[in-house]
Amino acid sequence: MKKTFVALALIALSLFTVSAQEPKPSPKRIAIKAGRLIDTQAGTVINNAFILIEDDKITAVGPNVSVPAGTEVIDLKNSTVLPGLIDCHTHVTSQPENFYDDLFRKSHIDVAVTAHLYAKRTLEAGFTTIRDAGSSEYIDIALRNAINAGKVVGPRMHVSTLALSATGGHGDLNGFSPYLSFKGFENIADGPNELRKLIRQNIKYGADQIKLIATAGVLSEEESVGAPQYSQEEMNLVVEEAKMWGRKVMAHAHGTEGIKRATRAGVASIEHGSFVDAEGIQMMKERGTYLVADIYNDDYILAEFGKLGYPAKIIEKERLVGRTQRENFQKAVQAGVKIAYGTDAGVYPHGWNGKQFFHMVKWGQTPMQAIQAATVNAADLLSVSGKVGVIAPGAFADIVTVDGDPLKDVTELEKVKFVMKGGVVYQR
Ligand code: ARG
Question: Which pLDDT score, from 0 to 100, does residue 23 have?
Fold first, then answer.
């Protein structure tokens, strides 16, 4: 009896000391005074608004919000304020320097060691969230986890890890002796069993979505850009398997037939979309498939990749794609296909992610539509609506500014001045 009482008293005491020692810390409060605020959801501009932030989230927004006494105020009354931008197609872990050196002198370890640099540049350019489109050796997973743990500076990352490629496909090493191969985790999968296994393995180690290489590409040495590289049955199975594990599929697809197969299979987005035809556009529209078209890339590849030692064959393939991709992007915009912003940054320097806005406006979008592609639409594609891509109560305090008016001159978004991610200021 006595023993029980002592024990209970000790428990009560220890409970008391625990609660006395660890009072809930009061939240960190910040108020941002925004000269012009872009409401990405409504597609409108609000003048002289306040944004209230508690820890990493937004709690209130609007012109009539009152700021509690003692709140730290960040004065951005001379700026245009918008939600952190989202790039739905990056390869943030690397960047080409020289074709042969990258292939034969560097290892995955070199890539892993420098990846954090590119993550930081991406964030500082105003891109607070990215969907990364594939990486070797699970480097993207390690990077994402280090960023989430606060050890490395970078954007929120949705990673694909090993991109599913057919033997001889865009994701395979082509054009060399059959005796040449590199050690590493295999991203080649043919047929149902291998595809299911690779998808399950990707998810086991931390993939947020599945990247399917549905057709031939540009920056690889297979024969023809755009040829389908998986059968309809294989693509159907990939989407079905990914869905079972709660994952969406993003499909690299330049070619007319491959775009249709991937769309029919039910992928969430077509990446590149270069040779989409009227029927493909109609199919995408009907199914709500997003188009993520990297329409800045062409300029950079034609200007620089010869100097980087890329084989002439690859540069020739780019010439087939560049202009047609832009024209077809315009047709898709006009038809009302859902568009999300995705650049393929990593083909060109990380941190230049904002350069594509200009091209999206040149090829058919209004500046507001292009901004929505990089905010609300991108968030929808990434299944994180309401959390990112908006400045609204409950969303992460991911906030960027530019000096001028991006609705008049969208290239303002190439010069982001202030970057906050999760209530922490990274760039001012
Ligand atoms: N990663 C893509 C590929 O190799 C890049 C395509 C770049 N060209 C373009 N016009 N978007 O296929």
Answer: 72
297 Cα: distance to centroid of ligand 1 (angstroms) = 7
Joined together, the tokens standing for residue 332 give 């898709």
6 lies in some domain:
no
Q: Which of 324, 359, 356, 309 is nearest to 86 (CA)?
A: 356
Q: What is the DSSP letter of 25?
A: P
> What is the arrangement of strands in the sheet containing 269-272, beginning at the earlier edge strand?
210-213, 249-253, 269-272, 290-292
Q: How many domains does the chain have?
A: 2
* 345 inside domain: yes
Binding site membership of 272 for ligand 1 (Cβ less than 6 Å): yes
Residue 13 within a domain: no
**Tokens standing for residue 163:** 């991109």
Burial of 201: CB neighbours in 10 Å, binned 0-12, 13-18, 19+: middle
Same domain, 269 and 133: yes
Q: pLDDT digits over 171-195, tens only?
A: 999 999 999 999 999 999 999 999 9
Residue 63 near residue 50, CB atoms below 8 Å: yes
